[in-house]
Here is the input.
Amino acid sequence: MMKVESALRGKRILVTNDDGIHAPGLKALETIAHSLSDDVWVVAPETEQSAASHSLTIRRPLRIRRFGERRLSVDGTPTDCVVVAVNHILRDQQPGLILSGVNHGGNLAEDVGYSGTVAAAMEGALLGIRAIAFSQLRYGDGPTDFSVAEKFGPDIVRKLYSLAPERDLLFNVNFPPLAPEDVTGVRVARQGRRDDMVGVVEVNDPSGRPYLWIGHWGDDTTREEDTDLAAIQAGAVSVTPLHIDLTHKSSLPLLRECFP
Ligand code: MN
Here is the structure.
């Protein structure tokens, strides 16, 4: 454990998120990062960017605002933040690790494709930097409690950082909506898939005109084993390795027969 811990000491850690520079979950992740290294930088979106996915801002300029010596915002997406941090703010000394989150709400199953939190880690992986996304499932409507993240986060970061680097690999970590003492453990899980999808709800505004909300309001119960959904259902922290290449490799031979 000491050996692994010393691997991070003195390493530069970049912390970002998709909930914005003022989000409580960002503060929780900064605390985790500070427990591992003295060289922690925060570059986070100026405003909330949840479900921004892996978007880049390329049709307007970006501005940086400074909130502290090592605490800055960019008025763009999570991906913009990582790109600006690595190529501009921290260009003289690159981060050795990127932590994204802790997101307010889970990023399980197909959420991964919409998530700005995961996308920031994905950008880190593209840049060849070890990257981990963290999300905390919500307890009803109340403020999100990040004590599970603060209890389990540091050890998860140390262990994932100790693994041999692999091209285009990133990690997606979700914390269950429980008190720390009720968490059943840490489970390695594959990305799941919900039975129901993002939906549309039409309601009327005060003048009687319809408007729409899109989102997912179903529950996350699953019968699929070994998934992130099942791990959370079992009260565990889920750790899922993700990679950037979306190729469905087993379809390649069939496709080559179609297009000889
Ligand atoms: Mn978010």
User: Anything to note?
Assistant: The radius of gyration is 19 Å.
